[in-house]
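User
New here, help please:
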Amino acid sequence: MNLATRCTACGTMFRVVQDQLKVSEGWVRCGRCQAVFNAQENLFDLEHDTPPPWQPPAETSEATVGAAPADDELAVSASFTSEDHAGIAEPEPPPDAHPAWTEPGSPGQEAALEPAAEAFDMPARAEDDDEPAAEPAADRADSLPIDAPANAEPAVTAVTAADDRGEADVAAPSKPADAPPEITPAFLKQAARNERWEQPPVRRMLWALVAVSALLLGTQVIHHFPQVIAAQHPGALPWLQGFCGVTGCRLDTLQRIADVSIENTALTQGQGPAQPADDAASAPDSDAHILRLAITLRNRGQWNIAMPSVDLSLTGSDGELVARRSLSPRDFGVTDPQLPPGLDTPLSLRFRVAGGRVSGYTVEVFYP
């Protein structure tokens, strides 16, 4: 709920918070004219209610202004309060006091004081009989021997200025010189920012940046993973070869050792020509043994992958290592070193082992 109120002095509307009103008991200060008023009187909801009409402050009554005498001295005396009059008329001056406005012992002193007392009592009798009280005061205004107080001049000036300005000044008071600048609401600032981003030049620039960023990102992906793209899209292989020729990337067959499994192996005595299994090939033929290794590999992945190398270890009866050799796909006579997905690929090799009798072996696959 968005609450707002209206200043009773200048009519400015601004937002308020219910919690703050509870703390201050409804009293707030206007940020424009600095007037303090009760916000509960003009409180309304911005979303559901209509702002209450602003009633300007009550104007100075014409009767009060018109009743002021035209004479400056009479206006000064009328602005005094009854307490001020009593303070001037009642106390007697000390015997040795000599007022500056009359001579001591002057015969007209009592006559001058009596009309002044009547003039001072005039506001108290104004309710019963206005015209009779005003006429004697006007007749004796010239003989009044009392100097006007220092603060009487501004009072007369204020009344005269009010008469000259009229209703227009009361309805639209002037803005104070030291009033704080108006604060733009946050939702207006947010709307302005959103409007800037919706402009056609800004949107075209953003789309251009998005396109350039996507192109650079795609280039980086192709440069770092050409093997994956070639395996997933074999038709793009010629284009990838040209791309790697320009950028210097390495285009090899995809290698995924986790997708390779050894289905079965067999090591048996063989006959015929064989490759040496170790560096002891120069040993006498009587000590050499010809063995045949048969192995079946399977690709459990979804794409073609490179054929791995085979690590063969031969052990004797006491578990001692007799010979060890790494066999590449070329050693098995494979011309296309790839494993198609979901198929078994059999490999076989005859080799010669010199030395002791072979009683065991182990086979592992790896990528060099």
The longest helix spans residues 200-224.
